[in-house]
């Protein structure tokens, strides 16, 4: 269990107001977090119908447990911990989903298109021509690595916060994220894959341009 206290944020304040009965605070929370939450769930389960059901389940759990909420961490950590638990319950309920983890690019792109374009990550929206390749690469990641990457990319959570959400050690969370980024780079840049075979793991080769807005070098230097 992490000893360091996470800094609170504006959303945590809104949740405290909602706990006290302020319905407007809940509407503000929902508006600010619905996009990242739905994208996370959609890419986790790769099924639009299931993602919509889980989306509703997450908010229902939050509402049901609002009286017990305590602002011990950033609200995103609290919300995505619920989302993580809901998605794990889903995988346990339907083991067949795990066998569909390596869905093809067409299926991944079809599901992603159900998200309004203004809610998509800037990198994907800006580089639309790379969308299919990126989504397929994300879908091909092992579930634990995919989740670490999505939590980082969609919410900006730190390594420590990702560890808290997924209930693993900091080093495990860091390792999952590094492996995910390494695999995405190889999948999206053939030159990277060739160079990787001639250098040690996690050694970054010089790059003349960013690979993609959603997969950048900054994540590799995430604080621990």
Question: Can you describe this structure?
Answer:
The chain has about 220 residues and is an all-alpha fold. The chain has one domain (about 10-220). The protein has 13 helices and no strands. Helix 2 (about 25-45) packs across helix 4, helix 4 packs across helix 10 and helix 10 packs across helix 11 (about 170-190). The radius of gyration is 18 Å and the shape is globular. The protein starts with 9 loop residues before the first helix and ends with a helix.
Biggest sheet details: none
Helix-strand pattern: HHHHHHHHHHHHH
Summarize model confidence as the mean pLDDT: 75
Which radius of gyration do the C-alpha atoms yield? 18 Å
Helical residue percent?
Answer: 55-70%
Flag low-confidence runs: 1-6, 117-128, 191-214, 216-224
Strand tally is 0
Tally of helical segments: 13
Percent of residues in beta strands: under 5%
Q: What is the overall silhouette? A: globular
Offer a few descriptive terms:
224 residues; mainly alpha; 13 helices; globular; disordered N terminus; disordered C terminus
Question: What's the SSE blueprint?
Answer:
Blueprint: H1 10-19, H2 23-45, H3 48-64, H4 75-93, H5 96-99, H6 105-112, H7 122-126, H8 131-140, H9 143-155, H10 159-166, H11 170-188, H12 190-196, H13 217-220
């Amino acid at each position: 269990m992490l000893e360091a206290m996470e800094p609170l944020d504006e959303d945590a304040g809104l949740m405290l107001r909602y706990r006290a009965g302020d319905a407007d605070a809940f509407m503000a929370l929902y508006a600010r977090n619905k996009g990242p939450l739905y994208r996370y769930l959609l890419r986790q389960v790769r099924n639009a119908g299931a993602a919509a059901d889980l989306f509703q389940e997450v908010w229902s759990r939050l509402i049901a447990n609002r009286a017990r909420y305590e602002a011990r961490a950033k609200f995103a950590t609290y919300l995505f911990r619920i989302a993580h638990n809901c998605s794990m319950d889903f995988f346990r309920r339907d083991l067949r989903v795990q066998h569909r983890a390596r869905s093809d690019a067409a299926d991944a792109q079809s599901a992603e298109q159900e998200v309004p374009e203004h809610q998509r990550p800037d990198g994907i929206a800006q580089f639309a021509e790379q969308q299919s390749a990126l989504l397929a690469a994300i879908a091909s990641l092992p579930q634990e690595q995919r989740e670490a990457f999505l939590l980082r990319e969609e919410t900006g959570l730190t390594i420590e916060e990702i560890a808290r959400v997924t209930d693993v050690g900091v080093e495990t969370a860091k390792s999952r994220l590094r492996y995910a980024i390494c695999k995405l780079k190889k999948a999206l840049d053939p030159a990277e894959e060739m160079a990787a075979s001639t250098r040690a793991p996690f050694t970054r080769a010089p790059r003349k341009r960013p690979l993609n807005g959603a997969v950048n070098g900054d994540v590799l230097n995430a604080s621990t």
